[in-house]
Amino acid sequence: MNAQLMDQARAAYRAGDFSSAAQLFASAKTADEICGEADHLRGNSLMRLGLFQDAADAYSAALRDASYGKSGALLTNQGKALAAAGDLTGAANSFGLAVQDSSYATPYKAYMGLGNALLKSGNPTDAGVAFRSAAIDGANPAPAAALMNLGDCFLLISRPEDAVEAYRTALDFVGPHDDPRAINAGLGQALAAAGRYADAIEAFGRATSDGIYQLTPEQQQSLATAQDTLSAQRSMAPTVPQTTGAYAPGVDPLDPLGQSGNLIPDPSDTGFFTLSESEMIQQDKKEMKVRRRHRHVGLKIFLVILLLVLIAAGGLGFAYTRGYGYPTQQDTLTKLFEAVTNGTETDSYLAPGLSDDAKSVLVSSIPEGSVPTIQGLDKSMTESTATVSVELSKGGSMDYTVDFVREGIGWVVSGISIDFGDADSASE
């Protein structure tokens, strides 16, 4: 082992120069030499560079060092690398071996990876078992994501009532990195499948109330079904017979029940002209009050409109302080990934304070042809941090952490990094 090269490799790794770090970790040992730390950190560096299959091979090399330990973390990282490379079967095998390591402190991460690999492989039943294990793991600080995925599995195996309970429990455990809108959308779909249409519409309403979350095509279909069915049920309800509006002869339309005993006043009744002078004065005062009230109607309308404008402005100000904006974080991230895939300019989606080198590194970390989806968002008035699931062009997926900063009323990206979970747990 070349200690000097190892020190240089660690320094490059800490500095974020993952290309140099990967090369230096490889050069620090001979081809047949075993060093768990060097291969572990080399695998992490290769993951950062998007070289997923090479990263998986590096983790395999690290696993050969029995004295290094950390097999649970290494196998979990290997599973993530294989999933990102599109090898879902190999990924599921690695995740399954990871949870067998009794010394592994955070097995929920392996269970989550296993569940995702099985779900994408078309096995929602076993995926649900894995997600349940992740949710009940005492080391899991944020079980909402596992519970939401469990609800998805229940829906796929036609157990909507169980899905409802999973989603509702997920809402009880929502943390800063979870998206309650996505959970409510899943809940709406489950309620619709269970025939609870009014509750489904209410859940979908909570999911889309801020205008940011977009329902999936399946969720849109469930909402439409719930609305149509509920509307049909209401239209079939017993109705009160409608009258023609005609009154029977001799009935006063101002008193259709005939309780007054009088019909419409006779036109020959000129009682007004028989009023005394004092009565006329009192009558005039009453009419002046009526006219005064009518004159104030315009002022009242103006005040109402002004109040509504103030309320709207207050609502916009409140939304701004809560981290909402346009374009949204999801809109900016989607357009940035599309720009990378299409080879078009990306500067308009990046923080203007970034240097050209920083922008180049950030853009180079985005895989071409990938699609990002924000799974959780911790937002404030000026900064936001999102956990993002990225679907890769080869069918795998990767988790990223994306930082945003406020630019005007919208958001731009200030940093992107791959979320390795246990990938950085090697000691240095």
UniProtKB/TrEMBL annotation:
Keywords: Membrane, Transmembrane, Transmembrane helix. Pfam families: TPR_16. Gene3D superfamilies: Tetratricopeptide repeat domain. InterPro entries: TPR-like_helical_dom_sf (IPR011990). The chain crosses the membrane at residues 297-320. This is Uncharacterized protein. It comes from Collinsella tanakaei YIT 12063.
